[in-house]
Amino acid sequence: MKRAETEQFPFLNGIEVHEFLYQKDDVVSPHSSLWGDFNFSLNGTLEFDIEGQYYLSPPSYGLWLPPRTEHQSLPVEHEIHYICIRLHPRYGQALGLSCRCFSIEPFFRALVVQILEQQKQQAQPEYLEHLLQVLFDQLKQAPAYSHYLPQSTHPILAPILEKLSAPDSFHQSLQQVLQQFSVSERHILRLSQQELQLSLSEWRNRAKIIFAINQIREGMTIKQLAFALGYHHSSSFIEFFKRYTGQTPIQLKNASI
Fold first, then answer.
1. Do residues 86 and 37 lie in contact, with contact meaning Cβ atoms separated by under 8 Å?
2. Which domains, ranges and CATH numbers included, belong to the chain?
């Protein structure tokens, strides 16, 4: 295993912020921690095997792993600047007892960068403690989901999700897909919020992103992929992909070579 970690700093108030640099093809063996870990990337998409389940974490989402949760990151396709926020169990309880995906705002990411800079400059402990408290408060109120692409066993919603995530339906609009089911669109959208805590359009966008990442790695061209996802112009697809992953399809494709 190759893992470049920046300088370590002693914990303050039960919260640690660490940064790592992963190089292409780096592998991390399965491990767990006595503290909880909140992991996210500043510049790419993280993929994790967490107790046998696959989790995806694009730049605007982070993964919470409670204490003693065995996990490993999958081999990375390009250099990733990766952040790990370690929380003492007395703090981790506020984030839940199961693995969850948290949506993070630009302010949160900027705050992490500021904390790392202050640690390197050995800032006054009182100021650093204040920043860590703000960071924790931001994390506690961030929207949380069971998974980046949450699922449902609801008898009405489950077959709809299956159809929405099917590649052969990606060229159809959301409304065209929903018209195939004998349920009102309003009822379906209400079920989506209740079961997934996501709008159906957002859920489908995430399904498209997972499909696109896999197809790019399999060698599909950007033009072919844009057409498969229902885009008339490659530029529109590229903009969509970058908004969700923090990089262009070409950057991901080149990193996979």
1. yes
2. 4-145 (2.60.120.810), 157-256 (1.10.10.60)
And the tokens for 42? 């500043």
pLDDT, one tens digit per residue, over 191-247 is 999 998 889 999 999 999 989 988 887 889 999 999 999 999 999 999 999 888 878
CA distance 39 to 28: 14
Output Rg (C-alpha) for the chain, integer angstroms: 20
Give the integer Cα–Cα distance in Å for 128 and 123: 7
Q: How far apart are CA 217 and CA 249, in angstroms?
A: 10
Q: Where are the alpha helices (DSSP H) in the chain?
A: 89-92, 106-120, 125-141, 157-164, 174-178, 185-196, 200-218, 222-228, 234-245, 249-256
d(CA 164, CA 178): 9
Alpha-carbon span 93 to 118, nearest angstrom: 27
DSSP state at residue 138: H
CA distances in angstroms from 194 to 162, 185, 206, listed in the order given: 17, 14, 18
For residue range 121-164, list pLDDT tens digits in order.
887 888 999 999 999 999 999 988 888 888 889 999 999 999 99
